[in-house]
Amino acid sequence: MAHRKLHHCPQIKQDQDPILITGGAGFIGSHTVVQLLNLGKKLVIVDNLCNSSEVALHRAKALAHNPHGSLIFHKVDLLDGDALQQVFELYTFSTCIHFAGLKAVGESTLIPLGYYQTNVTGTLNLVQLLQKYNCRNLIFSSSATVYGLPPSDAPIKEDAPTGAMNPYGRTKLYIEEILRDTAASEPGKWNIILLRYFNPVGAHESGRIGEDPNGAPNNLMPYVAQVAIGSRPVINVFGNDYPTKDGTGVRDYIHIEDLARGHVAAVEKIQAVIRSNKTLDCVPYNLGAGRGYSVMEMIQSMSETVGHALPYRVIGRRSGDVATVIADPSLAAKELGWKAEKSLMDMCRDLWRWQTLNPEGYSGSNSPPSPSMASPLTPSSTLHPDIALPRIPATIIPSTTKTAVDGRTTPSSMVTAPSPVTSPGPAPTAKRALQSAF
């Protein structure tokens, strides 16, 4: 089937080697976008907006202060191999940062096939195109869930045993193995960095971008913030009989801005390796603060930030939860020159600022209208006076499997896409989606 071409957007020329970011409109992606734009990078964002918002990209561009940075957005699902290939035909990418994927542990146990299809097949489509178009520099958004059940409370190093305990974690682990095999199959060609996150918290200090989960949040602090704003009645504490100082689980929390800096450090690491005519092959790094806070400490800190005690109730433990999970981030400090800098109170203050300024998340914003084949190509400048967003149609077939971003809960009606590796091309009845230049 012949491809119907995306319209070329002149803001980014192929010889400028932009960075491809999948899932760039999500929580971690949008914060990383701001920092890369501040460095003057040229970015191409691919996201299907299943559980993210284009508003985040408008705001990210407005927050960046370097006029040399630029951003183009394509609404494309990684499961649509043909549409994704059309993006690759427009640019010569220097590096890819791969955020896009489903990330809700509980949901993954209910629809495991959807998680394997979306996360693993989407990544296979992406990596095959990176290989085909000779971009062998990849930063993968992995997770500390690959470590499974830690054998002790000691900080976890990258060489610790792996063994994920749920379908979500296994998709991350399988993708890591796929990427190792890919690098090993072409020795001396690939630079792949696996960033294993612990628990991102907070928001941009402006309060303009932050975490906007669909439905009930899966993570502690977004839930705490929604209780604080009055959207939910009470915080559930899952067990208070762990062998910790207050009986509640201890986790390593990292400010989202520190985590975004970790991605910038990874990009710079790959660039330095290329300049030295060497390769990394495939290397994992932990991105965590290296210290833990209990659930009760997190609730107490947020209560202090809000100015009053937040209601909570203790209920039973969740299956698979462990007492303490803390990162050993020393390898990232040594080889990436990165370490977490922001404090727990920074996390709480920035999260609260985001929550109070955006009580309904991005849905309360004056977001651009949904595109349609009949709508004119009109700019949207309602979000920020300096941003013109032309409505340029691009071809995509909406996939029945939704690719979410950064841990957002996805509809439980998700079904698997029809092809295991190469997804079908656009059908004659395909609708129109966006290619937007910021």
Describe this structure in words.
This protein has 438 residues and is an alpha/beta fold. It has a single domain, classed as 3-Layer(aba) Sandwich (Rossmann fold). Helix content is 32%, strand content 16%. It contains eleven helices and 16 strands. The chain has helices at residues 27-38, 54-63, 81-90, 105-110, 112-132, 167-185, 220-229, 256-275, 295-306, 330-335, 344-357, and strands at residues 19-22, 42-47, 70-75, 95-98, 137-143, 191-197, 199-201, 235-238, 250-251, 253-255, 281-287, 293-294, 312-315, 324-325, 392-395, 432-437. The strands form four sheets. A nine-stranded mixed β-sheet has the order 11-6-5-4-1-2-3-16-15, with helices on both faces. α6 links the parallel β5 (137-143) and β6. The longest helix is centred in the first third of the chain and has 21 residues, at 112-132. The radius of gyration is 21 Å and the shape is globular. It starts with 18 loop residues before the first strand and ends with a strand.
